[in-house]
Amino acid sequence: MADEKRKRLAFAICDYLQQSITNGTIKEDDAEGIEVAVQCIGEAFGIDLTDDSQQQQYSIKPATLPSIFDIFLATQKKVKGDAKADGTKSEGAVQQPDAEKKAKAEELKGQGNKAMGAKNYSEAIRLYTEALELDPQNALYYGNRAAAHSQAGDHDKAVADAKKALEADPDYAKGYSRLGHAYFCLGKHQEAVDAYQSGLRLEPTNEVFRTSLSRAEAKLKDSNKPAAPRSAGGPGASAGAGAGGMPGLGNMDFASMLNNPNFMQMAHIDRNDPRAQNLMSNPAALQNLMNNPDLARQVGDMKLPEGEQ
User: Fold this and answer.
1) Please, are residues 253 and 245 in contact by the beta-carbon 8 Å criterion?
2) What is the CB neighbour count within 10 angstroms for residue 209?
3) Can you say whether residue 234 is alpha, beta or left, with left for phi > 0 and alpha for psi between -120 and 50 degrees?
């Protein structure tokens, strides 16, 4: 036997069909078939619309079946609308672009690659950026833009783009190559080593990674070496910073240079000026003088007599 909930549903259906016959919703030609259907449903569920006790027990009045259905439709529409809104919020920028946007992004990427080949790095960056606006989670586009930034000498931006590429796709090995190169150019050799090692974990047989890693490790080793002690003067002091020589300027003999009229003229020093004697006896003063980049450059270009280079 059907339970009470099912009986109430069957009663409501039969009542709706009977009302549809009465109010003319159902055509007269079809009424007979509907009345037979009502009788069959009544027998199947053990209900009778003419029974007053059942009317009190199973009727849903004052509600009607159409009004209940209208409420259901309105609720369903609201639930779907809320779910769609929540999906939009949660996905945000990570929504996958449609086929048209993907095709346009690929076209822009191809144009960016051509600009890279022509060494027009600013144009390549612009094109890759437009591609990313259409497909913002494409690791390859970030990797290409990182390469363009590095070629343009902006290694900090290259680091940022390489990291975004790896966020989009942690298995994008070339992202570690871009990252390692940018760190290497910034003099951050430990970070470069870490990046190349991560790339090798993804592609253990990649010779480019191996070569780049070896180079970064060598630079890191050199940077960790203690500085060589400087000589205070005397024989062989030309390798130090005293009057015999200065690092970075070819170990020139500055004692001889102070007797060179060209040098004294460039330094705007009179040979009889007491400052000239101070330079001879005070290497620190000479070092301060050579901190002038223009003077240092001119000294580097100056032709000295044999034995003074």
Assistant:
1) yes
2) 24
3) left
Q: Residue 269: what pLDDT?
A: 59
The sign one gets for the Cα dihedral 157, 159, 162, 167 is negative
Interval 243-252: pLDDT, tens: 344 444 444 4
Please say whether the beta carbons of 245 and 251 come within 8 A: yes
Helices assigned H by DSSP within 169-231: 173-185, 189-202, 207-223
Residue showing tokens 């339970």:
3
pLDDT for the residue numbered 174: 94
Question: 110-158 pLDDT, tens per residue?
Answer: 999 999 999 999 999 999 999 999 999 999 999 999 999 999 999 999 9
How many residues are recorded in the chain? 309
Instruction: Specify the pTM.
Output: 0.47
**Close Cβ partners of 243 (under 8 Å, ≥ 6 residues apart):** 233, 237, 254, 255, 280, 283, 286
pLDDT surpassing 70 at residue 211 = yes
Q: Could you tell me the end-to-end alpha-carbon distance of the chain, in angstroms, rounded to an integer? A: 114
